[in-house]
Amino acid sequence: MRLHTIKLSGFKSFAEPTAFGLPGQLVGVVGPNGCGKSNIMDAVRWVLGESKASELRGETMQDVIFNGSALRKPASRASVELVFDNTSQRVPGAWGRYAEISVRRVLTRDGASSYHINQQPVRRRDVHDLFLGTGLGPRAYAIIGQGTIGRIIESRPEELRLFLEEAAGVSKYKERRRETAARLLDARANLSRVQDILTELQAHSAKLEQQAAQAQRYRDLQARLRRRQQQLAWLKLCQAETDGAQAQALEQQVQLELDAQTAALRRLEADTETARQAHYAAGEALNQAQGDLYAAAAEVARLESEIRHLRDHRQRVQQRLQQLQQQRAQWEGRASAAAEERARLGPQEQAAAAQAAALATQCQQHSAALPAVQAALQAAQQQLVRARRALAERQQALGLLGAQQRAHEQQRQQWQQRAQRLHSEAQALAAQAADELRLAPLQAEWEQAQQRQQQAQDLLLQLQLEQADGERQRRQCQQQAQAQGQALAQCQARLDALQALQTQLQQAGQLPQWLARQGLQGHAALWQRLRPAAGWATAVEAALRERVQALELPSLEAALALADAPPPGALVLFALPDRAEQADALDQAAHVPVAAAEAINAAKAAQYSDAAPALQPLAQHLHCPEPALQALLARWLSPCYAAANLPEALAARATLGRSELIYTPQGHSVGAQHLGFYAAAPEQSGWLERAQEIEQLQQQLRGLQGLAEQARLAEAAAEAACSQTGQRLQQARAAASAAQAQAHALQVELLRLSQQAEHRQQRAAQLAQERAEAEQHLQQVQMQQQHVQAQQQALQDELQGQQQALQQAEAEQARAEHALQQASAQARALERQAQEAEFARRSLQARADELQRNQAAAAQQAAELAGQAQQALAELETLADAAAQAALQVALAARHRCEQELGARRSAHDGLSADLRASDARRMQLEHGLAPLRARLSELQLRLQAAQLSQQQQRQSLEEAGVEVQDGPGLQALARSVEADAVQLASLPAQVQRSQRELEALGDVNLAALQELAVAQQRLQFLGEQNHDLQQAIDTLEGAIRTIDTETRSLLGQTFEAVNGQFGRIFPELFGGGRAQLQWSEGEILEAGVQVLAQPPGKKNQTIHLLSGGEKALTAIALVFAIFHLNPAPFCLLDEVDAPLDDANTERYAKLVTRMSFETQFLFISHNKITMEMAQQLIGVTMQEQGVSRIVAVDLQSAQDMLEVQA
């Protein structure tokens, strides 16, 4: 594997994309100091994975990006690509199958770094692995930077060991061991964490097992409780349904019976009502028949009476006369008897009236005496009330005096305690007087603290004003910096866009590829070397047309080789005269066309002075720093003239020859007989104008960068000043706060002591006054206590007298009440006797009145009877019975018929009455029988409602318990569980209560413990497996480390011996004698360092530090080349390694490098001519543009062949 090409873009001073090939084994990089040669070495080191900016001669990694120059803006990114020829397939791994391997690294301004191998994004680690063990790397022995060759030999043993490890190829083993050790450390850490987690998890699992057992017990109890509750609800539901069914059946039965009884009662009531109506009708018929019978009987009786009256009327009249006489005698006897009885009742009535009057008098007397008794009772009661009130008043007064006595005693104790407390406080105040002696010094100290505080506040205010001014100035600087930054960014963006457009147009089409194949891609186009005047770039482009992109060749004969493969587009090639020609000829050639054009123009101006303005050659508006190129452009533009505008050109066209043209700044051309408007193709136009604008933008950018840098520096200075002022302000604030705190503390203490002294004085006077007042109040309270005691004694005496008076009043009230009760009883007895006597009087009077009426009635009746007797005597004479006998016969027949009808109707009426009485009896019996049925029905309805309510409740309980009551299978399963458990309704409530008590006895239960335990067990299993895997991994990693150590130890030993032998051979070759060797430092070979012992010819030095700079460099070269003999790197970079060597040592060094170049490709930087002579290819690095490096390739073999041809 060898380095084929290096491509740089935006890396340090290589602003433009630069690529140079390395075809030979010895490639030298030459150029003046500071032109950027070492940047090539840094680029190679950087793309191989260097991550330390100091190794790349920078402060930060952003320093590798092109930072701009006077004419260029900073690059946005840095890119370096190394292309390797891998036809020998020395690269191990997956990339070894590619014949060409490109490694590229890109870094952008935002800090994004990316690596690519064969255009595929990879990691930095992949790049390290690609070159691991090959001697290549950011700090490998194959890349020796500027000034580091001497430091190699002076490196510490541990650093020299790195070169030996790279040569032995154990760096990859070391990297693998480091990775393995890191993995082992991670595995052990993971194992420790896993074991810690396992320990914690096992303890947690033990707790969770207990909690899970308790949770399982809780769930089992809960399930059993739920099952028992469901079963209880089911049995209650079944019982309720049974009870409901039974109650409903009984209700229906009772209802039917009640309905039957009610119907029977209604029928019986209807029958009874019918019977009653019939009875009423029969009664009416009976009454009618009775009336008829009575009428017939009356008629018969009348007739018979009439006949008898007629027959017997005389007899009856006679008898009546006799009866009337007898009745008259009886009535007269009755009247006399009544008179006698009335006479007999008169004394009784008088006696009764006298008795009633006497009793009334007694009642009036007792009634008159009763108010006196009541008044005596009222007086006794009032006396009792007054006695009780007087006793209560004395007791209340005595209670008040007792309360006053207790209050006075409490006041006495309070005043006594207050006097003692005031005395103690006065003693304490006397003790505080010693603290008041610090007032005077404390006042002075406080005044000093106030002065310090005022000074600190003044300083703080001054610093705040300074900070405000600094902040305002910083904002102004910041705004200026932002404005400059925006202007710079705009300018930079415009410049980037134009440069990108130029680059894009340069790379557009197939011509760039053709130029690359022909090796002409590094040649600058003509427009890059021209500097047209302002405003004439378009005109120059219009005049030159395709020649604006012309390329320079050493000679036009060299273009003959391109005829076989012509370019895919228009291409102009030109060659300038040989630089060996005389400079005056160049100058003449450069100025002759211009002079000729000026002469022609002058002649034309003289010829047509009146017709047209003077014309200037277009070449005068174009500047080129190369005289030969200026002369060529003058010849190309000799027939071209310039006019400020189109009217001037048209006015001057008469002066033109056949092939001459006048161009305006817009590119329009005017010939003698034609006018052409310029409109070039986009890809072929604007080169000079854009280049001119790019140059102007670069100049503007440099100015803006300067202004931006000044603004940034001003902002930084303002920021630093603000920061410094802020620090001072913070210090001043702290000092002011401290001074304020101290002054405040002193003020507080001073105020405290002053207030304490004032308070002590005031309090002392107040205490004295309060003590006097307390003594006075104490004496007053004691006098009041004595007065209250005297009042209490007097009230005690009065209380005893009032108690005796109360007892006497109570006895008097009792006597009055007894007398009133006796008087009331006697009055009530007399009232009853008076009422009875009055009743007897009234009865006798009523009897006497009745007898008087009877007597009067009897006398009247006797008088009437006497009159009737006289009438009967008169009637007797007129009586006859013939007609009456005939009517009697008719009346007897009618009466007989009425009697038969009455007997029939009476029989019917009696039967209906018996039936009605029987129906009423049955109705009453039925009504009495309905009441129990109604009560039974109500009871059954209540039982049915209770059963239905119980069913609803139990169904709701089942639904809440998760049993679908509408689902047949759910209820059937519940019924089967009841049958399976053989539970009874009577025992289930006790079981439910027992389960509830067991649940309550469990207390708080972690119901999530089962899930947590399952998760913990699963995690335990996973962690156990992980623990086992980690243990196995640790064993495997430890075995791998032991294997790597064994192999490393073996390889290091072998490599050490081989390198030591080569080092001992090459060292005398470079020095022309002497001896050198390597040796291990003390310790294990895997940890020991490498020490170098070198003794040049004629020296017996014991340490390498005694050698000169050149000797150290040669020793280091010998060591490096000894390593190369053992493990040749694909290429070696040497940056001015020969700088400290003299010519003799340089020749030996050059011979050794030349001999080693058969196996290793060397890229070296040197200023030594001897070293340059050994190069097969020299790469020149120039910096014509300040800050921008360019490559100039020189093939020495081709140059030598060219010289031989010319010779």
Structural summary, described in words:
- The protein is an alpha/beta fold and 1207 residues long.
- Among the domains are: 2-142 and 1132-1206, P-loop containing nucleotide triphosphate hydrolases (Rossmann fold, 3-Layer(aba) Sandwich), CATH 3.40.50; 499-690, no CATH class.
- Helix content is 69%, strand content 8%.
- It contains 20 helices and 23 strands.
- Strands 2-1-4-5-6-7 form a six-stranded antiparallel β-sheet. Strands 8-20-21-3-22-23 form a six-stranded mixed β-sheet, sandwiched between helices. A five-stranded mixed β-sheet has the order 12-14-15-16-17.
- Helix 4 (157-168) packs parallel to helix 17, helix 9 (583-607) packs parallel to helix 10 and helix 16 crosses helix 17 (1109-1126).
- The longest helix is centred in the N-terminal third of the chain and has 262 residues, at 171-432.
- Residues 582-612 have low confidence and may be disordered.
